[in-house]
Known about the structure:
By secondary structure, this protein is an alpha+beta fold. The protein has 1 helix and 8 strands; from the N terminus they run H-E-E-E-E-E-E-E-E. It has one helix at 2-19; strands at residues 26-32, 36-42, 46-49, 55-59, 65-68, 79-81, 87-89, 97-100. InterPro entries: Antimic/Inh_G_crystallin-like, Antimicrobial_MiAMP1, G_crystallin-like. Keywords: Signal.
Amino acid sequence: MRKFIITSAFTAALVVGGAGAAYAxxxxxxxxxxxxxxxxxxxxxxxxxxxxxxxxxxxGDGQSGRMYNQPNAQGVAHFTLASNRNAEQRTxxxxxxxxxxx
Length: 102
């Protein structure tokens, strides 16, 4: 009987944890202009350096993104991408890092 209770509790925890999960905002950096070349998706909370600067797409899904012209989110935030709107730029971008606010 005890094994059944532990298994049921574990399954219930997975269901509750999965139901509360939400999509995170995503910054997609492209190597070339016009969303070409290699790309990387940045969607983790906190600071991330941006490896490509040719163009970008932002999918705002609950978290805002503070953009910095220096690596490691140093200095003053240059721009903030909205938490509830998408954005994109087809031409090169000077941002070197992002801080996704979670």
